[in-house]
Design brief:
The longest helix has 15 residues, at 254-268. The protein has 18 helices and 23 strands. The protein has a 7-stranded antiparallel sheet. The protein has 2 domains: 2-231, Aminohydrolase, N-terminal nucleophile (Ntn) domain (Glutamine Phosphoribosylpyrophosphate, subunit 1, domain 1), CATH 3.60.20; 238-451, Rossmann fold. 32% of the residues lie in helices and 26% in strands. A hairpin with a 2-residue loop joins strand 9 (180-184) and strand 10 (187-191). Bound molecules: iron/sulfur cluster. Iron/sulfur cluster is lined by residues 176, 235-237, 382, 384, 386, 431-434. Iron/sulfur cluster (SF4) is lined by residues 176, 235-237, 382, 384, 386, 431-434.
Length: 454
């Protein structure tokens, strides 16, 4: 997953991009970068680490220009390495171009192989570079060649393209990832989530639609709709876990959706007897509040999260994940001792983190643990940009419900039904492939490689 931010025609473009990336930091913590357009060329600064580690006053001072794009990354394809940090910049027949990509192309290997056979030399291992080579090979205006390139791509993408004269935003025809257009006085802003617009005091104009290409140039916005039949398959997991609660994603506030997920969970678990509802912070908090609303069982913050350890789910290696999980959550023994608890979490991926949590709750004296998950069992990998592991590593793929209950050492476990999850998120037009294994696009080489362990 990644976060992207673009701003056109503002005197403090790089500074605002820096702030915007801060607001999107939860979408990627491996690298950060900003490119500005200045005097007919592009200027770039990128590095490994958090936005605050990559940028300082001096770096931002080296990014003059009135238009900027920024990117925060965590890797789904391509290693966590500086050469894969985005925005990628390149020079071609269209002049200097920078590209920032959120998503994951499912036919990247095939496109890359074809381009390499035609002589293209790739400098990174990201799927995003395939887009760069496709752009470089066609003639016409940059938006025309972009549209042609997009028609050959499958999978998920929200893109920002920067040239000395234009800022272009594009969203795949399924609209897997969120992308919004905002306005800041006379400037236009594009961001992965509305939280970034709010931070820079931009007003949200609208969502960029699935399959839409928006060209911002000389103070005007032009919308292209090159795909005849966009088929929305918005990622429901953005609502369940990924997006920030203060964002409005796919037209709905994330916090409200999560609270509704919790209410629905309580309705499905009617009759459960417990002394308190305890969230796994932070993403389990709104669902636990919703659970408490409906069940009447008091909400209690009996697990305390350290905010100095970043989210375990998006750490790139298993080793780091385990270390971070141990550091991250501490139970409050005085609140837990002898109590029956409903433990609310948004999802279970491998199950290893959940097991550590339930163990620590038992150690702290919890008498009963009823696990309540505000989404269905994750049984299939995501090929659209969320870093879920291979099918065999997903606990719900290889264990039955009673085996999961035993593995987690809980008194009961309930996952929210898919129907209730989709209803809370807004009904139709969602991807829920990681819960069903039914993918809305061909998954190409990517799925094959995953199934065979490649
Ligand atoms: S497979 Fe799951 S995580 Fe991936 S886009 Fe679909 S709903 Fe989102």
């Amino acid at each position: 997953m990644c976060g992207i931010f673009g701003i056109a025609d503002h005197a403090e473009a790089a500074d605002l991009a820096y702030l915007g990336l801060f607001a999107l930091q939860h979408r990627g913590q491996e690298s950060a970068g900003i490119v500005t357009s200045h005097e007919g060329g592009l200027l770039s600064h990128a590095g490994m680490g958090l936005v605050a580690e990559v940028f300082n006053r001096q770096a931002l001072a080296c990014l003059p220009g009135r238009t900027a794009v920024g990117h925060v990354r965590y890797s789904t394809t391509g290693a966590s390495h500086i050469k894969n940090a985005q925005p990628l910049t390149f020079n071609c027949s269209h002049g200097p171009v920078a590209i920032a990509h959120n998503g994951n192309l499912t036919n990247a290997l095939e496109v890359r192989g074809r381009l390499e056979r035609q002589g293209a030399i790739f400098q990174s291992s990201t799927d995003s570079e395939a887009i760069v080579h496709l752009l470089a090979r066609s003639s016409g205006s940059i938006e025309e060649v972009l549209v042609e390139a997009l028609k050959t791509l499958e999978g998920s993408y929200c893109l920002l393209l920067l040239t000395p004269g234009k800022l272009i935003a594009a969203r795949d025809p399924h609209g897997f990832r969120p992308l919004v257009l905002g306005r800041l006085n006379g400037s236009y802003v594009v961001a992965s989530e509305t939280t970034a617009l709010n931070l820079v005091k931009a007003e949200t104009v609208r969502e960029i639609e699935p399959g839409e290409v928006v060209v911002i140039s000389a103070g005007t916005v032009r919308s292209l709709k090159p795909f005849k039949t966009p088929e929305p398959a918005r990622c429901v997991f953005e609502h369940v876990y990924f997006a920030r609660p203060d964002s409005k994603v796919f037209g709905r506030n994330v916090q409200s959706v999560r609270r509704e997920l919790g209410r629905a969970l309580a309705r499905e678990m009617a009759g459960v007897e417990a002394d308190m509802v305890v969230p796994v912070p932070d993403s389990g908090v709104p669902a636990a509040l919703g659970f408490s609303d409906v069940s009447g069982i008091p909400f209690e913050m009996a697990l305390v999260r350290s905010h100095y350890v970043s989210r375990t789910f998006i750490r790139p290696t298993q080793e780091l994940r385990e270390v971070a999980a141990q550091l991250k959550l501490a139970p409050v023994p005085e609140a837990l001792s002898g109590r029956r608890i409903v433990l609310v979490d948004d999802s279970i991926v491998r199950g290893t983190t959940s097991r550590k949590i339930t163990r620590s709750l038992r150690d702290a004296g919890a008498k009963e643990i009823h696990m309540a998950i505000s989404s269905p069992p994750i049984t299939a990998p995501c090929y659209y940009g969320i870093d879920t592991p291979r099918a065999g590593e997903l606990i719900a793929n290889r264990r039955s419900l009673s085996e999961i209950k035993k593995y987690l050492d809980v008194d009961s476990i309930h996952y929210l039904s898919r129907e209730a999850m989709l209803a809370a998120a807004g009904g139709t037009g969602f991807c829920s492939a990681c819960f069903t294994g039914r993918y809305p696009t061909p998954t190409g080489d990517y799925e094959k490689a995953s199934r065979t362990g490649g």
